[in-house]
TrEMBL record:
It comes from the Bacteria. Signal peptide: none annotated. This is Myo-inosose-2 dehydratase. Residues 30-280 form the Xylose isomerase-like TIM barrel domain. Coiled coil: none annotated. Gene3D superfamilies: Divalent-metal-dependent TIM barrel enzymes. InterPro entries: IolE/MocC, IolE/XylAMocC-like, Xyl_isomerase-like_sf, Xyl_isomerase-like_TIM-brl. It holds the Pfam family AP_endonuc_2. SUPFAM superfamilies: Xylose isomerase-like.
Length: 293
């Protein structure tokens, strides 16, 4: 069964808090509920107490999906990472999450507005040899705790390009699932449809945002930072950019889980209510076209 959720980044940005900083949680949740959204991921304005978060979302007829967790497995081993994650795992599980969204954030530049994407970290062979088994071990530990690790490839991080996603998937064990993010995959130089088809049996979570190709190309050509590109509108909701979403969903005929709407835009330029409603309507249409009911 596919359920449609959203990330509050459609309203308020988590990497640059002033983007949508004036939008209250109540507006976000009311508009999400009215758009027919079934679940929400974690945003910085939401409580980090499991029962409190679960109740807040339930008051709006929604459930908790998951939340981002930054790993630093190039700096510490899997057992140390798991020990450091205990509080984060606890409140997520108490709030009702089934998956843990993780991204390796050693030396990442995606949250630094002054850092061009060209300055992002690129792993050496020796670093890959350390990172991959540690991620597998971490995922196994998290699975024992009762959550499924889904790895978020992301612009500005050590797993950005399709080649890096391939190396990551080849080098990690079955305890690690992939979070397919259509926007990051496309802007990172990949084909979201081809990637969905290639890893259909290991995709455990899906983030859907579209890409405005002219802005994506300009951002890379002119050395913009990730956040400057976001402010300029590199991302939008499904159906408003260049990605073949019906093709993505056709490539995932047996997928069961969450499909998460993300826009990651400046709400002063792109009204969240307008774009969220547009995105949800388009997602439902694309899913139906692909045979998902």
């Amino acid at each position: 069964m596919i359920r449609i959720g959203a990330n509050p980044i459609c309203w308020s940005n988590d990497d640059l808090w002033e983007i949508g900083g004036d939008i209250p949680v109540e507006q976000c949740l009311t508009e999400a509920r009215d758009a027919g959204i079934q679940g929400m991921e974690k945003g910085h304005k939401f409580p980090s107490d499991g029962p409190e978060l679960k109740k807040l979302l339930a008051d709006y007829g929604m459930v908790f999906v998951s939340g981002w967790y930054s790993t630093f497995l190039l700096e510490r081993d899997a057992d140390a990472e798991f020990a450091a994650a205990q509080d984060e795992l606890k409140w997520r599980k108490e709030a009702g999450a089934e998956v843990l969204i993780v991204c390796e954030c050693t030396r990442t530049v995606h949250g630094t507005q002054s850092a061009p994407l060209t300055s992002r970290p690129v792993l050496t062979d020796a670093e890959w040899a350390v990172f991959l088994p540690r991620m597998t071990r971490f995922a196994e530990l998290v699975k024992g705790y009762g959550l499924q690790v889904v790895y978020h490839h992301h612009m500005g991080t050590v797993v950005q390009t399709p080649e890096e996603v391939d190396r990551f998937m080849a080098g990690t064990g079955p305890a690690v699932k992939l979070l397919l993010d259509t926007g990051h995959m496309t802007w990172g130089g990949g084909d979201a449809v081809a990637m969905a088809r290639k890893y259909a049996d290991r995709i455990g979570h899906v983030h859907t945002k579209d890409v405005r190709t002219p802005i994506a190309k300009k951002a890379l050509a002119e050395g913009w930072s990730f956040l400057d590109a976001v402010l300029e509108g590199v991302y939008t909701v499904p159906g408003d950019g260049s990605i073949d979403f019906a093709g993505v969903f056709k490539a995932l005929p047996n997928y069961s889980g969450w499909v998460i709407l993300e826009a990651e835009q400046d709400p002063k330029k792109a009204n969240p209510k307008t774009y969220v409603n547009m995105g949800i309507a388009n997602l439902k249409r694309f899913l139906a076209e692909a045979g998902h009911r």
